[in-house]
Amino acid sequence: MNKQIKTKGDVFATIEQYVVRFVRIWFTDILGIPKSFAINTSELEGAFEEGMGFDGSSIEGFARIHESDMVAKPDPATFQIIPWRQPRA
Known about the structure:
Layout: H1 8-18, E1 22-28, E2 34-40, H2 44-50, E3 52-55, E4 69-72
Antiparallel strand pairs: 1-2, 3-4
């Protein structure tokens, strides 16, 4: 990938070019341990605009059970294609 991705438009163009089906949203917990969840590419526009809700009660240091609703809002400038191919049978 030669072009630097900076905008939502760049992300959507790259998704189309590489036929991406899922986007994994990565973040770290309070201890720096990576966490993630996946969304369909059809959900990405909403994620950029409003964020994606998730249950933060199981994430170390994030929230108590009664404060557990969290929102992750992706930053288009951090988008990366991670090479992955399904094994051939």
